[in-house]
Amino acid sequence: EPIQERFFRPHFLQAPGDLTVQEGKLCRMDCKARLLQCFVWLRPFPIILFTLKVSGLPTPDLSWQLNGRPIRPDSSHKMLVRENGVHSLIIEPVTARDAGIYTCIASNRAGENTFSLELVVAAKEVHKAPVFIEKLQNTGVTEGFPVRLECRISGEPSPQIFWKKENESLTYNTDRVSMHQDNYGYICLLIQGATKEDAGWYTVSAKNEAGIVSCTARLDVYTQWQQPPQTTKPKKVRPSASRYAALCDQGLDIRAAFQPEANPVHLTMQSGLVESDDL
């Protein structure tokens, strides 16, 4: 009996949807197309039997386009075909130039079929290690009063913050001791009603994917009768290159001092100035 072999254009059993990929990453597009092959047996009586063959033979040809232009294989664009009939377009690394409308075309002797998708390339995430804009400062407080240990940190992405007192981690807030931070990088450890047990070394650490940084400062807690130690040296009279300013410091009559007939004795008082140790 005569047999007619007819072919139908391929169709896609698997096709990806729109994609969003971060710049610098890998992008993979998978699709699967098979050819429908139809055999028709012609008999004397009007009975037609269709048998669909979905084995994928003969295999349709596939090609890829970006915004209507053919994509050629190169170092960053690869086209693979696996044994199970899955065709893949692999782009690595993805750049901003790869964004657009992708079209896959499957064709054979009977015709062709296509599908399209949009690839959006997201900007590459910036990574910056944390840095201290303002560091912790040694602090003293009278027992029973509140105290704040503050600093400011920047980093991309926003770093995680960790507090420690001596070698003990502060992992949760209490009614008396609480940890705070805002969207501007300000970090604060608040102690309500400081006690002698709160005195010690405090460390704050900031960590993200790019690195980690730490800063340590001391908190001293004084009793009511104690006085905080003097941390600054008493200021001395700063010498001045200006004759006018120096004489004003001594309480002299400036008008009389600069007249030609002024008594030279007035000018000798300038020698009593004390030189600053800062110069």
Automatic annotation (TrEMBL):
UniProt keyword Nucleus present: no
InterPro entries: Ig-like_dom, Ig-like_dom_sf, Ig-like_fold, Ig_I-set, Ig_sub, Ig_sub2
GO biological process, one term: axon guidance
Residue ranges annotated for the Ig-like domain, each copy included: 10-116, 130-220
Keyword entries, A-Z: Immunoglobulin domain
Molecular functions (GO terms): cell-cell adhesion mediator activity
GO CC, any one term: plasma membrane
Alphabetical list of Pfam families matching this protein: I-set
Gene3D superfamilies to which the protein is assigned, alphabetical: Immunoglobulins
Keyword NAD: no
Name this protein carries in UniProt: PALLD protein
Source species: Nyctibius grandis
Organismal lineage: Eukaryota, Metazoa, Chordata, Craniata, Vertebrata
Gene that specifies this protein: Palld_1
